[in-house]
Amino acid sequence: MIVISLLFFLILLGAALYRRYYPVKHIPCLPVEEVPDGLLLLDLRDYNESNGSIFGQALHIPVAYLKRHVRHIPRKPLHIIAQDAIEKNVGIRLLRCYGYEVKSYSVTACDCQERGRTSRWNITKRSKTA
């Protein structure tokens, strides 16, 4: 009985870690300036992180409030703006569960140009002064 309980716990833990930390595949990282027309900008950052943001035309719903306010998001292809990779992963997976099509994303804590736009594994930061 203990072995079954432990196995069940490990499966739940593995699913939670996968959903939060494993990168979402086949969605390109684009700077906000290069987002094609027709995509709705959806800012998933917390209110205090996006205060005074340059993304004034974006619909702002923090990732913690997505389940509650998903009905306010128009049914259009989306470009996600997130603070970090965890917020991006959780947000994209939640939106996919609700039937939304996420075409691209931007992470404000990382420059897409440095990461090669589609390489989600290269998270090495380069010094701006070097």
TrEMBL record:
Top-rank taxon of the source lineage equals Bacteria
Q: Which InterPro entries match?
A: Rhodanese-like_dom_sf
What is this protein called in UniProt?
Answer: Rhodanese
Which source organism? Geobacillus thermoleovorans CCB_US3_UF5
